[in-house]
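fwd from M.: "can u put these together and see what the complex looks like"

so here's what she sent:
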Amino acid sequence: MTVEGLLRELAPQVLGLLVRRHGQFDACEDAVQEALLAAATQWPVEGVPDSPRAWLLTVASRRLADAWRSESARRRREEAVFVAEVDDAEVPAQDDTLTLLFLCCHPALTPVSQVALTVRAVGGLTTAQVARAFLVPEATMAQRISRAKSRIKAAGARFSLPPEGERDERLRAVLHVLYLIFNEGYTATAGDQLLQGELTGEAIRLTRAVRGLLPADGEVAGLLALMLLTESRRAARSLPDGSLVPLAEQDRSLWDAAAIAEGVKLVSDALSTTRLGSFQLQAAIAAVHAEAPSAAETDWAEIAGLYGLLAQMAPNPVVTLNHAVAVAMVRGPEAGLAMLAELEGDDRVAEHHRVAAVRAHLLEMAGDVAGARESYLRAARLTLSMPEQRYLLAKADRVS
Amino acid sequence: MKYLLMIYMNDQTWVGLSEQERSALMAGHDELQRVTRESGELVDTNALGSPETSSVVRVRDGEPVVTDGPFLEAKEYLAGYYLMDCESRERALELAALIPDSRHCATEVWPVMISAGVDV
């Protein structure tokens, strides 16, 4: 394991232990961040210590003591606690990852803050890395994280698992945040490509950790499967010059067979043994695509059926849009266009470039060249993704 | 001294570019960003969404009024910008000429006032 991988693995353990011992999540999180930074510069030069976790705990504890010492003399009595080296034997067997995730995804925070805090506090990324991945200056990200922590404190959140009655709802919020982290890495098209690939890897790693702790939860399995199946197409979805390759035109030999096999097994097991959920359905749809030997051999009837279920379970405009594409593939473009008409009156999406892009695609299928070109151009004007705009403009050129 | 290099585009021109021209344009931006990042001149750069995605905000009687943008109605619109920190106005003009869009439409070069300092 690389030093960086090791640090990310240890970050939530060290943080959990520190918060358990001293409370004050915000101060502990800062101390752990400083310890991680120190390790990232020292370990590659001086070698990884025999007990890396104890090293991090010792350094983080000292930083915490330093912070308190400089903060106020009345805390002097607490210094004694930190003088001794921390012994690795003290590390409890329990894994605090889930408790930390619940805290970082606290309902008092906006999704943007939940995401930032989660990748730093639980994922062990440095503020600089989080800032680069989300394309904001480091100072902005540092501010965002520190505001998020004050808000958690103000909300009176405790470092413990949420009460039984709230746990399911809070877990949905955690899964949503993990999915946002993944999407940020997968769909972001500007900025540091390498770091964005790291975000998808990070989301998968954290979701795997949650699955290890909650193996019986079908939606956790569904989310992990959805991420693996989506990520399996990474190598095929863009060309070296950054332009996008749509699913139907991708070179399927570039898909990651191991990730597909793992994702398909996960979702199949979950579908047959647990309560149905929207992540499982989305993963099942991704699995149908993944298992088709070619675009032409895709089982669109199966996909249309799954989108129908998804539309009942978690109706939203994006689902309607994808459902319309699947229906068009089964029953023809007119049926798909009729479904799109439902979205026209929906203010949330009427101006969205994907509605125009799908309409263009369906008009092209129906042989309406002028209409398709106009819709492709409209979609190109509305998108905020450069590679997507290039793709749409090229489609507009080719259709005419 | 900082200069704001504002890239103006015309929708007809933009839509009319061929795929190769568009690829060359993107590659040109990558190269310009690489060079100016290395030289320390690049402060910030962004491409903007198209005029259809912009909004205009006015505050009247203390109440914000939001309408569809852009504010200036013209065929040309601000498509993106580079904020460069360069030695001289000449260098800023030289960099503006390296922006690929300048070949298709035009780039405006404005000195940034607040960064100029008291001795200028």
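replying to her w this: Residues 80-85 of chain A have pLDDT under 50 and may be disordered.
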